[in-house]
Amino acid sequence: MALTQKQRLFVDEYLIDLNATQAAIRAGYSKRTAGQIGDENLKKPQIAQAIKEAMDSRNKRAQIDADYVLRRLVEIDQMDVADILTDDMSVRPLHEWPKVWRQYLAGFDVSELFEGRGEDREMVGFLKKLKWPDKVKNLELLGKHVNVNAFRDQIDLNVIGSLADDIAKARQRAMQAE
After folding, report:
1. CB distance 47 to 11 below 8 Å
2. What pLDDT sits at residue 175?
3. Mean pLDDT of all residues belonging to the chain
4. Of all helices (H) and strands (E), which one includes residue 124?
5. Would you say the pTM of this structure is higher than 0.85?
């Protein structure tokens, strides 16, 4: 069964932010029922298939897949602050930074430092603050991606025997107690 025009629009809108309610509203469904309609649309096999195909197509065009994500996570994990700082802890010129630092630096603040007041005020330096990506979060994402379960709570259950064996033993004890 082919999708209606409104359903096709829902699929296109869903790809924007993966929010079914907002996609339904943007596709022209009633705001009052958009949450319900969005949820229902995601459960319809033909719409779910259209979304999957559209996402696969977009990923192919953008050349983004699991390997791409993993490569980027590894790049972030391997970032070394020595690549952008000198031995005296000053920041190297930007043109000397490796590409990975220019791409993934989470923040960079520069403040001018002054001494004195009024007309006697004089700039005496800069305060530079660098914020790099959260390495622990990055490792967590890497661990999940490669399924090493490094960040999963684990419970060790050591079950010896089976339920049937336990029931049989309980019956024997009950018969001996009689």
Report:
1. yes
2. 82
3. 86
4. strand 122-131
5. no
Architecture per CATH, domain 5-62, reads as: Orthogonal Bundle (1.10)
**The residue type at 32:** R
Secondary structure of residue 74 in the 3-state scheme: helix
Buried b or exposed e, range 14-30, using 16+ CB within 10 angstroms: beeeeebbbbbbbbebe
What's the rounded Cα separation, in Å, for the pair 72 and 78? 10
Q: Could you report the per-residue pLDDT of 33-52, keeping only the tens digit for each?
A: 999 999 999 999 999 999 99
Two structure tokens written together for 103: 């791409």
Tokens coding 84 = 């952008």
In Å, the largest CA–CA distance within the chain is 104
- Run of H or E including 117: none
Pinpoint the alpha helices (H) of 18-162: 20-26, 34-43, 45-62, 66-77, 99-104, 135-145
d(CA 45, CA 62): 25
Distance CA 143, CA 150 (A): 6
**Per-domain boundaries in the chain:** 5-62, 70-136
List all residues 6 or more positions away from 131 whose beta carbon is below 8 Å from its beta carbon: 105, 106, 107, 108
